[in-house]
Write a structure and sequence with these properties.
The chain is built from eleven helices and five strands, in the order ααααααββαβαβαβαα. It is an alpha/beta fold. α9 links the parallel β4 and β5. The longest helix is centred in the middle third of the chain and has 44 residues. The N and C termini lie far apart (129 Å).
Length: 323
């Protein structure tokens, strides 16, 4: 069984020797590391410029050197590595956003080991083989830990991005649009599940409160299939809107969906329905005390109004105003 004190001392010596190599030959290590990355198939100048890669790598190498020196041979979890871990998390997140893969993130860091290893061999090849093996092992352990941090944070970053995109898509999938004063429309596209139905109801009720609307059009033209679950979601939404003082009109009911509703025994008798959204908008305007009038009819009404207003003036001119 190895003596703990001996192991600790060896780790301290390894850390000191590695940090000395990193400090003394920093520029040489950086150049070898950058050269390896630029010549690899993984370098993509559309994602990162050579200048940015060098600056990023220089900062990482400096933080790594300081952390190895200050850790006194302790593990990668030592507080001396905190700032290095934060920087690794930052660049990993940036790379995830730009489109790098987990493998590219890991190999970027692992390439640093390939740049440092030959210098350790050159410096300590005349020493006992155990010394060199211990140095290379210590370096490999630290670099592997760095690569693992890059991969783990990459996965977290991608998961956060996916969650945000999913939330954005859910929000976009339930747009409540104000088409006229006190009239809202909610186009429903795709399949309704419990989660989306809840978001749809919340968005509609919130907009009813904000706009003071009294009519809401639910358009299901884009709904592919209708089953009891989807129908129940619609009925709940209509009921909730009614409690908020708004009446709902269901539009876009296709012949196929109408037949399915009948076959399933779905009762939508309490919901006003129209085949086309245009019919629903017309009905909604009537409910709101408005009407759609063609431009020709409007022009005639205006002309009749003008003629009516001209009659008293004409009568006065003819001397009939007092009769």
């Amino acid at each position: 069984m190895a003596d703990t004190g001996t192991t600790t001392t060896q780790s301290q010596q390894d850390a000191q020797r590695i940090s000395e190599i990193l400090s003394a030959r920093r520029d040489e290590i950086l150049n070898l590391w950058i050269k390896d990355r630029l010549e690899s198939d993984e370098f993509r100048d559309e994602l990162i410029s050579k200048k940015e890669l060098r600056q990023q790598s220089r900062t990482l190498l400096e933080l790594f050197t300081e952390a190895v020196r200050d850790s006194a041979g302790e593990s990668f979890e030592h507080p001396a590595y905190d700032e290095l871990r934060r920087f690794l998390n930052d660049i990993s997140h940036q790379r995830a956003v730009k489109g790098y893969t987990p493998v590219e993130n890991a190999t970027y860091v692992i390439a640093l080991r390939s740049a440092v290893r030959p210098m350790l061999v050159e410096e300590y090849q005349g020493e006992d083989s155990f010394v060199l093996a211990s140095l290379l092992g210590h370096l490999a352990l630290l670099v592997d830990k760095m690569a693992l941090v890059m991969v783990e944070n990459y996965i977290r970053s991608r998961e956060e991005t996916i969650r945000q995109q999913r939330a954005d898509m859910m929000e976009l999938s339930t747009p409540v649009i104000k088409v006229w004063d006190k009239i809202l429309t909610l186009p429903i596209i795709g399949t309704l599940d419990s989660r989306r139905a809840q978001l749809m109801m919340e968005a509609l009720l919130q907009r009813i409160v904000e706009s003071g609307s009294t009519v809401a059009i639910l358009d299901i033209t884009g709904v592919r299939t209708m089953d009891t679950l989807v129908a129940n979601h619609l009925i709940k939404t209509v009921t909730a809107a009614r409690l908020m003082g708004a009446r709902c009109i269901l539009t876009g009911v296709s012949p196929a969906i109408a037949q399915t509703m009948v076959q399933l025994g779905i009762d939508l008798s309490q919901i006003t329905t129209r085949a086309q959204m245009s019919d629903g908008i017309r009905l909604a305007l009537e409910m709101a005390g408005k009407a759609i009038v063609s431009t020709q009819v409007l022009a005639r009404l205006r002309m009749n109004g003008l003629k009516s207003s001209d009659q008293p003036a004409a009568a006065a001119a003819n001397g009939d105003g007092g009769k």
